[in-house]
Amino acid sequence: MTKPVDQDRIRVIVVDDHTLMREGVAAVIARQPDMIVVGEAVDDEDAIVLVERKQPDVLLLDLRMPKLNGVAVIERLCPKRPGLAIVVLYPLRSEQNSLLRLHKSLSRFVNSTLSS
Q1: Half-sphere exposure of 44 (CA within 13 A, CB side)
Q2: Residue 116, pLDDT above cutoff 50
Q3: Of 11, 65, 77, 106, which one's alpha carbon is 20 to 30 angstroms from that of 99?
């Protein structure tokens, strides 16, 4: 019996409260042959529920969110999902201190500031 195609792909959840950013990142990921977006969330609380339900391989997470914040999400998820790769998008240099505190829990930091 062969495995379903999706089992061979990296399962990703994209979390960002900015629709354009979230949908744009999800669209780029969806074009990758070895990746699949299994969910999108607009806030931290939805992200936690979605990760628990969908069991992704990667969580792409905006650090600045409306309800909780990305740091709180990471602190909640890491004990429950130690194998989850977390990639954090952060717009401000001042937030690096929060990220550095969690550096052992994160896979990557990505500065999401757009510059001209």
Answers
A1: 17
A2: no
A3: 11
Residue linked to tokens 């780029």: 28
In a domain, 46, yes or no: yes
Q: Which residue has the tokens 């409260």?
A: 17
Which residue range forms the structural domain that includes residue 16?
A: 8-92
Residue 100 CA to its chain's centroid (Å): 17
Q: How confident is the model at residue 73 (pLDDT cuts 50, 70, 90)?
A: confident
| Cβ–Cβ under 8 Å, residues 51 and 13 | yes
Query: Which residue, among 45, 48, 27, 25, has the nearest Cα to 112 in the 3D structure?
Result: 25
Measured in degrees and rounded to the nearest 5, phi and psi for residue 91 equal -90, -20
User: What CATH number should be reported for the domain holding residue 57?
Assistant: 3.40.50.2300
For residue 14, being part of any structural domain is answered with yes
Extract the tokens encoding 101.
């505190």
